[in-house]
Amino acid sequence: MTADVITIFPRLIEAGLEAGVIGRARERGIVDLRVRDLRDYTDDRHRTVDDVPYGGGPGMVMKPEPIFRAVEAIAAERGPASAVILMTPQGRTLTQGLARELSRLERLVIICGRYEGVDERVAEALVTSEISIGDYVLTGGELPALVLLDAVTRLVPGVVGDAASVDADSFDGGLLDCPHYTRPAVFRGLAVPDVLLSGNHGEIERWRRRQRLLRTMARRPDLLARAELSADERRALEQGELEREAEALAAKPRAAAAGAVEIEKKRREP
Ligand code: 9D3
After folding, report:
1. What domains can you pick out in the chain, each with its CATH number?
2. Does the predicted model carry a pTM greater than 0.85?
3. Which of 51, 65, 150, 169 is catalytic?
4. Distance of alpha carbon 105 from alpha carbon 234, whole angstroms
5. Active-site residue flag, 169
6. Active-site residue among 36, 107, 114, 154?
7. Which residues surround ligand 1 with Cβ inside 6 Å?
8. How far is CA 91 from CA 35, 55, 71, 88, 218, in A?
9. Ligand 1 site-directed mutation target among 7, 116, 138, most atoms within 8 Å of CB
10. Residue 80: φ, ψ to 5°
């Protein structure tokens, strides 16, 4: 897979792609990720990428010409893109399913917006998908592009060494993860659940599965409708068998910093 990111902050993108699993995948040649400085595709002395909005209003709009030239230059070098993605708050929300679809494509081009937005003709005539990463306001499309590339790249075969940990996301069927612990067995009076020290692998698997169900009920009940549950789990859920324990888990006290207490209270009593 190749991906070319068009941005006015190339160092920000480059820094985000150097570290960790993705950095290693690039070094090993499994993915070919390149950063393009939008200003390299301008033709004026000041390397101008923005202009005032037609119709007036605050802020600036990204000019279409440099973006069209950048995408066309990438196509000339790489061959035509499989998808030209614009990172924008107006896009469809990135999900694991969308990341999976994008990971199967050969050639991605990703455009990062800045300022008030991008000239609409870019969206009309160049872009194949507009994507957002969620409903909160950022200052531009660069961090969203890194989030998208992180989610997509790790799904490319060979990028994550342990295929089981990639598969877990899809096979584990839409439930939240169970709690994890490592040594020591007691830390500042906080003990690891006994079952995890028991060596009884059947019991450990059952405990983990139950924790995942309880956590999902307590924190993300919206996920349960589409989760892959056994017939017995569905039945237990519908008869409310885990309800009280999930409620107790949701109400369980966590670390309390002054400012966080009110925020977390709203989480439990929306
Ligand atoms: C304060 C400006 N807003 C006026 C209603 C519009 C606006 C323009 C540009 C809001 C955010 C941005 C910059 N954000 C992105 O380019 C962006 C983004 C985001 O802010 N949240 C989630 N996903 C994305 S993808 C691109």
Report:
1. 2-153 (3.40.1280.10), 168-268 (1.10.1270.20)
2. yes
3. 169
4. 36
5. yes
6. 154
7. 87-89, 113, 116-117, 132-134, 136-141, 144
8. 22, 23, 19, 5, 30
9. 138
10. -60, 145
Walk along the chain (270 residues) and give the pLDDT tens digit of each residue.
Answer: 999 999 999 999 999 999 999 999 999 999 999 999 999 999 999 999 999 999 999 999 999 999 999 999 999 999 999 999 999 999 999 999 999 999 999 999 999 998 999 999 999 999 999 999 999 999 999 999 999 999 999 999 999 988 767 766 655 689 999 999 999 999 999 999 999 999 999 999 999 999 999 999 999 999 999 999 999 999 999 999 999 999 999 999 889 888 887 888 777 776
- Rounded CA-CA distance 128/25 in Å is 26
- Which of 26, 47, 89, 219 is flagged as catalytic? 89
Q: CA 66, CA 70: separation in Å to the nearest integer?
A: 6
3-state secondary structure of 265: helix
Nearest Cα to 9, choosing from 153, 146, 119?
A: 146
DSSP summary character for residue 104: T
Please calculate the CA angle 63-67-73 and round it to the nearest 5 degrees.
150
